[in-house]
Design a protein that fits this description.
This protein is α+β, with helices and mostly antiparallel strands. It is built from four helices and nine strands, in the order H-H-H-E-E-E-E-E-E-E-E-E-H.
Length: 195
């Protein structure tokens, strides 16, 4: 009888140690998450959102779901452009900030701007994470972690269902490059007046 109790106690201690170790290995929520949430600007009823979004988009963006890893449309997208909120069109991320994290979801090292993404604490699934959401319509985007490989140290892990990609056309890139080159040229000296 004592052997069974000792074995049971050993298994319990082993499970507790494994649980503590696993908890220490989970990505932590970024320390920079703001304490207050900004007010959402676009508010619609659930019925309106259901009409405008696909069932998968509704599940992810309105019910805070997660698409299966490696199944999203933009996981392997490497085109130049802008990632917008699929629900309202707000600019969220620039393609220059995108990197392959190996996680199975589109990952970015920074948002398009300081106010492009909003943050809130998420304690679901027994973890403390930082949820990212659209500050314009409140759509769930994914989570941000402090384990990114670039100088920002951030990994914005985003569901493709929350995104709409808008590519930059080659002509626009060339026009922008030409304008930048022209702006970088030294100014010509003023012409002398003829007498």
């Amino acid at each position: 009888m004592q052997k069974k109790q000792i074995l049971l106690l050993g298994l319990i201690l082993l499970a507790m140690a494994a649980s503590s170790w696993a908890a220490g290995k989970k990505p932590s929520a970024p320390e920079t998450a703001p304490a207050s949430e900004p007010a959402v600007k676009v508010q619609k009823s659930d019925e309106q959102w259901r009409k405008e979004l696909t069932p998968e988009q509704y599940r992810v963006m309105r019910e805070k779901g997660t698409e299966l890893a490696f199944t999203g449309e933009y996981v392997h997208n490497h085109e130049n452009g802008v990632y917008q909120c699929a629900a309202c069109g707000a600019k969220l991320f620039d393609s220059k900030a995108k990197f392959d994290s190996g996680s199975g979801w589109p990952s970015f090292d920074k948002a398009a701007g300081a106010q492009s993404v909003a943050y809130r604490v998420d304690t679901s699934d027994g973890m403390k994470r930082t949820e990212i959401y659209c500050p314009v319509c409140g759509a769930h985007l994914g989570h941000v972690f402090d384990d990114g490989p670039t100088s920002t140290g951030k990994r914005y892990c985003v569901n493709s269902a929350s995104l709409k990609f808008c590519p930059i056309k080659k002509a626009e890139e060339e026009a922008a490059a030409a304008a930048a080159a022209k702006a970088a040229e030294p100014a010509a000296p003023p012409a002398a007046e003829a007498h």
